[in-house]
Amino acid sequence: MLQAGPQAIRPSGHQDPNILTPVGVTRRDFLRSATAVSVGALAGIAAYGVAYERHRLQRVVRDVPVRGLPPALDGLRIGMITDVHHSAVVSAGDVTRAVMLLKEAAPDMVVLGGDYVSFFDRGYISPVAELLAPLAGAPHGSFAVLGNHDDERDVPAALASRGFTVLKDQRTALTVRGERLDLAGIRFWTRTPGEIAGVLKGTGGTTILIAHDPRRLVEAAALDVQLVLSGHTHGGQVIVPAIGAIAGRKFPVLAGFAARENTSLFVSRGVGTVYVPVRINCPPDVAVLTLRRAAMAHL
Predict the structure, then answer these.
(1) What's the pLDDT at 42?
(2) Neighbouring C-beta atoms of residue 32, cutoff 10 Å
(3) What count of Cα atoms within 13 Å lies in the side-chain half-sphere of residue 188?
């Protein structure tokens, strides 16, 4: 009689409870589970960006090198607030916290960088101007420019009535600590070298250009402007790890300091949000900038 080997043993119909039976996982099951996990993670990140990150206001304090800055102007402090976007999703409380955070720093001069409301919403123009009013009357002036969400009549009128000097393709010559300081402001739609040169005509000494869009760094450098202050980018608003901000590729810098030739640039991340009420890896800010003398080689 032939002896049955191990391969010939038949199951008895009763499984040993100590033996685990492997469970098959199909490719479809795996993809479905992975998708669920990914969607859940993205939803969690988005919820964080809506509920927390967009309210995590910071005050950025830094030195900004300025080529040819007179010794008397070394240490001049400029407070900057931009891209407020007061709306149904950027509350009066959000704006007030930003205003108070900047006001507490007591800067020598205040600059408003544009986009006070979203999509030209007239219902928020007077309220946002009133919320910003505590920043008017800085020792060496409080100045404003227009962004791409601002109209050219109601917004300037509302800000001017609260004590701000609105520079709509205009410049003004200040005397600060006995030195001349030219401050020029352009609208978002003022872009060509010829248009900007017309605004800058007659400047001398140290010139600061307030331009909502940081891409105006190119024209400013060609026109030998010493410093540009900008917003518009929101710092990217949503920064994806290992990828960055998709919108950032068209700007010289999304936030912080940059330089081109002899021209310095600072870009604020701004206060509010637009399109979607979320910030990820990109908290809102107000900025306090201290001007410092810098040789051309150090920019």
Answers:
(1) 43
(2) 11
(3) 17
d(CA 254, CA 237): 9
Q: What is the pLDDT of residues 34-58, one digit of tens each?
A: 344 333 444 454 444 444 578 999 9
- State which fold the 57-298 domain adopts: Purple Acid Phosphatase; chain A, domain 2 (3.60.21)
Radius of gyration over alpha carbons of the chain, in Å? 28
Residue 272 is given by DSSP the state -
184 touches 207 (CB < 8 A): yes
Question: What residues does each domain of the chain span?
Answer: 57-298
Contact by Cβ (8 Å): 233, 255:
yes
Three-state DSSP state, 91: coil
Task: For 72-190, list the strands marked E by DSSP.
Answer: 77-81, 109-112, 142-144, 165-166, 170-176, 179-186
Query: Which pTM was predicted?
Result: 0.83
Kind and range of the H or E run holding 217: helix 217-222
